[in-house]
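@channel anyone free to eyeball this complex?
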Amino acid sequence: MSAAATIQPPERRLSLLVTVLAFALPVIFVLVPLAIFLVYSFFSVDQGTIVYAPTLGNYVRFFTDPIFLPVFWNTIVLCLSVAVICILLAYPAAYFLTTLRGRWRYALLMLLLVPLLMSYVIKIYAIRSILGLNGFLNKALVALGILQQPSTLFVFNMNAILLTLSLLLIPFAILPIFLSLERIPQTLLRASDDLGASGLQTFLRITLPLSLPGVASAASFVFVLAIGDFLTPQMVGGISGFTFGRILYSQFGTAYNWPFGAALSVALAIVVICAILIGERFGRSRGTSI
Amino acid sequence: MSALPRPATIFLAAITTLVAVLLYSPLFVPIVSSFFTISHGDVDWSSPTLSTYRALAGNDDILAALRTTLIVGICTVILSVVSGTLLALYYHGRRSGRSILQFIIFLPFLMPPIISGLALLIFFREIGLERSLLTVVIGHTVFVLAIVYRTVLMRLQSMSRTLVEASYDLGATGWQTFWRIILPNLSSAMVGGAILAFALSFDETMITILVTGTQSTLPVRLWAMMRLGFSPDINALVALILMFTVLLCVLAARFLIPRQMAAERT
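replying in thread with the prediction:
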């Protein structure tokens, strides 16, 4: 007992300090700003100054103005397309990784994940130079005789945003799909084989359904990251590639309408939360049943 | 996986190669270009040169931005490792309230950076804090905290409880147990978390753009320069930054992966 008593004082002092810090930090720097942000969306702006009186005007404007809803919807479709492209490329790659043995499997996985940590801005810039009118892609297509002259199909428009975002986000799709494929018990595949199923049957009836949770998480990751990005559209979108993130960003810059920007962010946040919840729901339900 | 038929393997390998080429092409283009001069939009492939690297050394704007980035990164690492470790120690083994506060810690990482950044921007304005390097450091710390917290917590959870019990049995005080047993066991997770935090801070652009004052970090400076199109010495900078990030990746993997794999095997 006496030994326990000597342990107590410093432990208690430490835990008091830690308790204060543990609550203060997340609450002050995360919860409070987000709460203020939400409150701001109910304010308005009059001649460059913020009017601190509650109003639903921002939300009414979002739903009634002919500009915002279409862009919002187009951006959602764009980011869903990015998610689909990423999964179509990432699934075969992740599947290939699981067919490898031991060291090679993880070495190659690392190789495909390392580009994640490489400078984001620089990658966007490099992709822009690849897609550009004088870029490598156009030069290659002309050299191969596929195009007569450089095409403007992927320069400063929605296609450019689609391609750039897909290229940037593929690693985020590879990891969850790889993890879910790797978790599939080998015994199931062997049992399927023993029972006389062909490779394709085993894939369609066992591997694919069991890997769908990973696909769901991958889609949700990629979608959330794509829809939150305003740098890529700003850099490669040009005038015609206008996304919701850019509109949002402009409300805090040139338009200087912070309350309206906050209301647009709330709309974005709702979509993001839905995407995360859907990803969680489908990413988990089957995963736990194994 | 069971053995695949040969055509299927070739098909999968081809797609994997394509993905690797796609992922690495935006990294190789600037590196290769950095060794050649560009005139009138065309690369002169005939004579490799280091002139872009020399020009970079004379670019004061970029060097100042690099200095800012390093200062912000170091402050962010210190703040996030200290508070992330404290939070992990606090929440480890605690049930009540943990999931809610843990959720709050993860919010800035889950939310689009534009939302976290704007929320902080308005918050700083409301409390009267001028945009400066301090606001950038706060923004980065809030953003990377979840990573450090998770890294340390995972190590804590994989740590054997018997070590702590043995320490108490041998008559060590709480502080002694903390300094001699818990902290050394956490150190490699903390170092790994610190490297990841630094890498994330080094590259963070979207939050930084929103909360920065007159001094900008390297990614923000580059972003501003790229909108106008920039000089070839940036290719040299890109090459150097990429090498630096590879180094960070290797270091982070060294500190984080061996232990985790060992933990999986047991």
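from a first look: The two ends of chain A are 46 Å apart (CA to CA).
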